[in-house]
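Q: I have 407 residues here and want to know how they pack in 3D. Can you give me a structure?
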Amino acid sequence: MKENEDKQFAEAVALAEQMTKESRREKEITAALSVADALKKGENVLREDDKSAFGKDADAFFSEQEIFVDKKAIRAEKTRKYHLKRILICIGALFAVAVICIVAVFAILKLRGRTKLRRVSENHNPALEGQDISYEEDVVYHNGKRYIYNENMITILVMGIDDKGDSDANILVAINTKDKQIACININRDSVSAVKVYNPAGEYITTSDMQIALSYAYGTSEEEGCKLMRETVSNMMYQLPIHGYLSVNMTAIPEMNDVVGGVTLESLETLDEEIIKGREIELNGELALKYVTARDSHSGEIGTNTARIERQSQYVYEWYQQLIKQIDNKPSRILDIYRELKEHIVTNLDFDEITYLADVVSECDMREEEIYTVPGIYERSNYYDEYIVDEAGLVNLILEIFYTELN
């Protein structure tokens, strides 16, 4: 295909050079016509002054000169139009080839990305547990109903990393690639679950029940922290397949906010003189950072992170709506935004997978009621807040989002 494109391009260049030569020839012909026109005018003068100079052959002489020049001009014009037509055809062909190549490459990238992501969940269905959970091959029985895992689900764990190196915000994005629907699950940073503990050298020591936010901190690098966090969340959710991860430092929120044109919402609580409960506010830059991250961790009140999660859920929904406005007429805008924010992002997704997800997300819808929070209650132990997950409620949530009920 590349050799064919080069050949067509070379031909187009040659035709363009030929057209330039024809343009010069056309100028010469135009000059000749001007001379012929002058001769015709001079003919009348000469005939009046001295008709014997040309006699009967005068009309024939001027007629022959005019016909000769006109024929050259006509041939040149036809040649010019012919070459111009060929050039336009070649340019059109090159453009068509380029478009076909782009479409083909995009299709290949999407297919490869889809294939890679699907491999994560091959033979890896969640292992749900509970008093009213039983299995018959791949069918799950729960409360008298039958369910089967939806293989069309793609899950991406999105993490917001705070300045202490903890995974402060954790949202599991669940994409139904068939129904083109997105659900988001907020996972409280204070959720108590089995966390693998490592020493500073990165050597495994033990597994202990603690806040899942600490799992990220045990990584010896940002990538390792993300991997540990993905493993912890997957285990907490009964080995739910998590196809990819993406983390961003909270300090990048102003840039993330502004890249979609800012977010406007009705404040859920009062944080300062600018952010007042019930008042519509346009979040730009640092104001967005404050709305998403503010928390009175020194308060005597238990569970202050709950209010922050509600604000984060609201913000994510409104941010997504702004994103959709931008990609309605230009789906590739997702890739543009990714490139603009790439320096702030750590992810295991390669370009093939991002291209596939960008295409899917551009067609997806996300309803406000499909932003969930892992159910549980707060307790305080040794000064620190601990969020105790409601296991039965979590099973119901997983069945609702990731399973299809059978008749």
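Q: Anything worth noting?
A: DSSP finds ten helices and 16 strands in the chain. The two ends are 51 Å apart (CA to CA).
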